Amino acid sequence: MSFLRGSQTQKIRHPIGTRKGPLEVPPPTEKDWPKEDEEDHVLVDPYEELDSLPQPYRMINKLVNLLFDQSWEIIEERNALREAESSQIQPTVFPPLGEIQLNKMPNCMAVSQDYVFIGGAKGFTIYNLYNAKQIYAWEKLKVDVTSIWATDLGNEILIAPVDEMGIIRLFYFYKEGLYLVKAINEVDTNACFKGDIKLSLPVYIMKIKPPKPVTGTPFKSPLEVFAKIKDCYGMGSGQNHFIKDSQWEQQAEIFQASYKKYLDGEWEEEPLSTATFYFLLPSCLFAMPTEVKGPTGMTCVLGIHWTRSHNFFLYSLNRTLKDKADPEGVWPCAAPIAVSQLSCSSSYLVLACEDGVLTLWDLAKGFPLGVAALPQGCFCQSIHFLKYFLVHKGQNMYPEGPVKSQTKCVVLCTDASLHLLEASGTQGPTISVLVERPVKHLDKTICAVAPVPALPGMMLIFSKNGSVCLMDVAKREIICAFAPPGAFPLEVPWKPMFAVSPDHPCFLLRGDYSHETESTDNAGIQYSVFYFNFEACPLLENISKNCTIPQRDLDNMAFPQALSLEKRCERFLQKSYRKLEKNPEKEQDPEKEQEHWARLQRYSLLLQRESFKK
Q1: Across-strand partners of 542?
Q2: Which ranges constitute the DSSP H helices of 142-277?
Q3: What is the tally of helices (H) and strands (E) in the chain?
């Protein structure tokens, strides 16, 4: 029962905010928004107090709530990912087997035979690969060494460090003795030798400059062109076009009209043009003079391309000295060449253009293995050749004999995706994805890769978060990981400095510190280079010891790419003979059988003649 008495009558309030008059939609501008009249608004629900805030505070409150909801979704997603990663099987992490401690920051490394060459301040030092003992220190420069290169010549090693001034010096290392041969691009040609070793001085061969841009010609007709020209390798070869000045003017007007809105802005400074070059061995691709004869295995052609150039130029090294050097051959590409790579055996060359198209050449045979295109949006960042391997009984192995017209290489793209390029002489090249492009977790972005020559089909993957993993290319899975002892505060993004031994199953990794750590106590920092040995890992013990397939086993296996021409013909004849045995109709017809054998004999003789010609 309730009692209602005059002014003391109780008002029943509903948990709903009511407003006098019809509802109106506020206009889009803030100055025209109606002011809130507190007298006309009855608020009963305490949760609606925030809705009664005046503008712009009500809008700010909504934005804060939206930001909170989005942040909460990210937190839930990360928690779910963390739980998923914890449930997955993480790769086994192996520590280093040795350590080289340095007082100065190492800038570069190289490995050859049983020695480690580390470049740093004012020179470089040489260490033993196994016991980390310092053998020699050459520190006679006023600047730092930025990169170093070493190659094995059997009993001796050639070393080429490059300093900050861009000067290259050639050293000769023999029986733990270091000899300076020459500063290649320095005006002074003083040579320092020790002992009874005598080396011939470098000889200047030729000076090559980038080709000049094509300009207009004063000739008025093609007849006048042919009458005045002296050295002509053929019209339309890509280097001997003759275009009038009026044609260039028309093209310039079309370009200015098409890109006027872009040309009106400020021009950026054009980057410097750099050259990438390779020393190539004799092959069918290069027409050399018959009177020129050299020892087997000596390079005879210099292949070179410049930045933003569409052409790959070929220069003969068997020539007389002269100031101007014209190329003997030109390989034009549809787009500028971005990246190129030559295999260790100098048998294969890859040209990657800026449009994502890769051309693979077989230099030994003299024909292209094919053209392949990366997926849309992928552009080549680096190319790494893999030593050709086969998969036998679930294990990667190297063929004991030479493999012809078969190659595999890994392509790292600018979006951090990793691809495998495989090519064969009889089949077109194929591209498959090894690692997808990271979408959400950018800390796992791949920053560098390196093949491991001592392990068939294995490759090291370096990520920006500091992780180093070993990947099986054939299985597309991570085998194990490597990490130095302790925690190292790395710079983000991480730029690893490493060196993989071409002969031994090991690699070296610099222990990086962040610049903040260096600035706090620069005098007390000890820099380290860690030595990792694959044979010390139980998971890789069998792989490193049994990595070669004998030739006798290859003859009984289905690997035609690893067989010689004679073995292929023999298998072909045996296969044909087995087919005849299984076909009773042909066995009953001796004339057809004899005719078939005659065709096989003629085909065998034809293959044999072609083999002798090669």
Answers
A1: none
A2: 222-228, 245-258, 260-263
A3: 10, 36
Give me the domain span that covers residue 404. Answer: 380-562
Q: What is the pLDDT of residue 227?
A: 64
Over residues 136-185, the pLDDT tens digits come to: 999 999 999 999 999 998 889 999 999 999 899 999 998 888 988 888 87
Query: Of the candidates 413, 434, 431, 435, which has an alpha carbon nearest to the alpha carbon of residue 421?
Result: 431
Q: Which residues contact 119 (CB under 8 A, 6 or more apart)?
A: 106, 107, 108, 109, 144, 145, 146, 147, 148, 161
Tokens found for residue 451: 């093949």
- The CA distance from 507 to 97, in Å, is 11
Instruction: Report percent pLDDT > 70 for the chain.
Output: 67
Q: Which are the contacts of 277, defined by CB distance < 8 A and separation ≥ 6?
A: 302, 303, 304
Please indicate, yes or no, if residue 452 is contained in any of the structural domains. yes
**Cα separation, 52 vs 155, whole angstroms:** 88
Rounded CA-CA distance 593/136 in Å is: 74
What mean pLDDT comes out for the span 504-517? 78
Helix (H) or strand (E) segment spanning residue 569: helix 565-582
Q: Which of 39-48, 175-184, 590-599 has the highest mean pLDDT?
A: 175-184
Domain-located, residue 589: yes
Distance, in Å, from the CA atom of 525 to the CA atom of 515, rounded to the nearest integer, reads 11
**How many domains in the chain?**
4
The token duo for 268 is 């950026």
Distance of alpha carbon 407 from alpha carbon 368, whole angstroms? 12
pLDDT tens, 383-410? 999 999 888 777 888 888 778 888 999 9
Say which CATH number the domain at 134 has. 2.40.10.480
pLDDT digits (tens, 9 = 90+) for 398-454: 888 778 888 999 999 999 999 999 998 777 789 999 999 887 777 788 999 999 999
Consecutive H or E run containing 81: helix 57-87
Q: What is the mean pLDDT of the segment spanning 360-371? A: 86
Does residue 604 share a domain with residue 554? no
- Using 50, 70 and 90 to split pLDDT, how confident is the model at 30? low
What pLDDT is stored for residue 421 in this prediction?
A: 94
434 plus 527 within the same structural domain: yes
Q: Which residues contact 614 (CB under 8 A, 6 or more apart)?
A: none
DSSP state string for 111-138: EETTEEEEEETTEEEEEETTT--EEEEE
- 568 and 425 both lie in a single domain: no
Q: Write down the pLDDT at residue 448.
A: 93
Position 344, amino acid: C
Mean pLDDT of 281-303: 73
Return the closest-CA partner of residue 160 out of 171, 145, 152, 176. Answer: 171
**Is residue 265 situated within a structural domain?**
no
Burial of 205 (0-12, 13-18, 19+ CB in 10 A): middle
Answer with the one of 69, 88, 107 that is the final residue of a domain: 88
